[in-house]
UniProtKB/TrEMBL annotation:
Signal found in the keyword field: yes
Name the UniProt record assigns to this protein: Uncharacterized protein
Keywords for the protein's UniProt record, in alphabetical order: Signal
Superkingdom of the source species: Eukaryota
PANTHER family with a match to the protein in the record: APPLE DOMAIN-CONTAINING PROTEIN, CHROMOSOME 15, WHOLE GENOME SHOTGUN SEQUENCE
Gene source species: Orbilia brochopaga
Signal sequence region: 1-16
Length: 391
């Protein structure tokens, strides 16, 4: 069981004792990300190549799947596999759906210039609770957490925002203009006349500009290109959960937790870190940020520890096992793309001032949507004894 200090630095809230002074620690993001194999085969990372409308349900596991996952692999990352999003096939020259919105024509470079002039990158920095991530790019978002596509009839960010607001689990949206073929390109129509589509995609995980790397494709001889791509994300919808109170939302980073002071706690309680889980996995499917998975996994980890208590030792004379009292949920973003949700578990509820780890020093890995939750059950215990201390 790998419960080493890969993430010895995560969580938030101080309910029992005064918070000790932090010790310098770093999350080993390289180790964490090395355990993120690519995405689940049947979990899309963007629209199909010829889609004009796609509805992807928000997918979250049930409680038994989370418990079974912890039983099989307690407090260690699961594995995922990748699915490619652009599947290119030869078309049959069938007419493609026409868009009633404003149309632009010409070869790709001319088409892009027309669109960029008509839809300049001057969209507002904020839109309600949303913050603009990028504007005026020539690519659309391509990452995990895809929740669907709607082709609308104008370059209307408020229309796209409203669709995200109405979609369960949606944390962000991407509006862009796409040069599509009027016929499905094939041998009989290798480079048909273009049509202009206005596409709105919805996302269940946050992202940055680096996620906008879908720059279209060549379908037979027709070049699909993208312009005027703009995107917004909003804070995570963290709130109180059954048996867990929200202690911090939209935090700067992941918790960087030191050890508890040895002069106030027995040796077996000073290290409060209990490991972490990453989602989605092959067994626990997830396409949006859902901290309730973390609290369920936290309880499952406590139950696992109770079934597998440590043996008697000089450092743990009462065979005490750790109780999961605090979780820190967040999303790791690498080069602009969400890599999945991390749940880190602690026996002690740390103060939000410890949420100081914003990512790797070179800026390629960042922490987003960080929230902390504290177990509200009483009595609150860091550990539970399972054998009597020797006399």
């Amino acid at each position: 069981m790998r419960t080493t200090v890969v993430l010895v630095a995560l969580a938030a809230s101080a309910l029992a004792a005064p918070a000790p002074k932090p010790a310098p620690q770093d999350i080993n993001f390289s180790d964490v990300l090395s355990d993120f194999a690519p995405f689940v085969d049947d979990q899309p990372t963007g629209p199909e190549y010829n889609a004009t409308t796609e509805t992807i349900p928000a997918t979250s596991p049930n409680h038994s799947e989370i418990v079974d996952n912890v039983k099989a692999d307690p407090a260690t990352p699961g594995k995922l596999r990748r699915r490619d999003i652009l599947k290119r096939t030869q078309g049959d020259c069938r007419p493609q759906p026409a868009n009633r919105g404003p149309q632009f024509f010409g070869e790709p470079a001319d088409w892009i210039a027309q669109v960029q002039a008509q839809c300049p990158p001057n969209n507002p920095d904020t839109l309600g609770t949303y913050t603009k991530v990028f504007d005026g790019l020539l690519g659309s978002v391509n990452q995990m957490g895809y929740l669907g596509l709607t082709t609308i009839h104008s370059y209307d960010i408020n229309d796209c925002k409203a669709r995200c607001d109405a979609k369960p689990g949606c944390l962000g949206f991407n509006l862009y203009v796409e040069r599509d073929p009027s016929l499905d390109p094939g041998a009989g129509c290798p480079d048909p006349a273009p049509i202009t589509n206005y596409k709105c995609t919805l996302w269940g995980f946050p992202f940055e500009a680096g996620a906008a790397d879908n720059r279209g494709q060549t379908r037979y001889q027709f070049k699909v290109v993208i312009a005027a791509s703009v995107a917004y994300v909003k804070p995570p919808p963290c709130s109180n959960l059954p048996d867990f109170d929200l202690y911090g939302s939209g935090l700067y980073g992941a918790i960087n937790a030191p050890s508890l002071p040895a002069d106030s706690y027995p040796a077996y309680q000073t290290n409060t870190y209990m490991g972490f889980k990453q989602y989605p996995t092959d067994d626990v499917r997830l396409n949006y940020y859902d901290p309730s998975i973390c609290t369920a996994a936290c309880d499952a980890q406590t139950a696992y520890n109770e079934r597998h208590p440590p043996g008697l030792s000089s450092s743990n004379p009462t065979c005490a096992f750790k109780v999961c009292n605090c979780i820190n949920s967040y999303v790791l973003i690498k080069n602009g793309k969400a890599q999945g949700m991390i749940c880190s578990f602690y026996s002690y509820t740390w103060d939000n001032s410890y949420a100081v780890n914003g990512g790797s020093a070179d800026g390629t890995v960042k922490v987003a949507s960080s929230c902390t939750f504290s177990n509200n059950r009483l009595p609150r215990q860091l550990t539970i004894d399972t054998c009597a201390a020797p006399i």
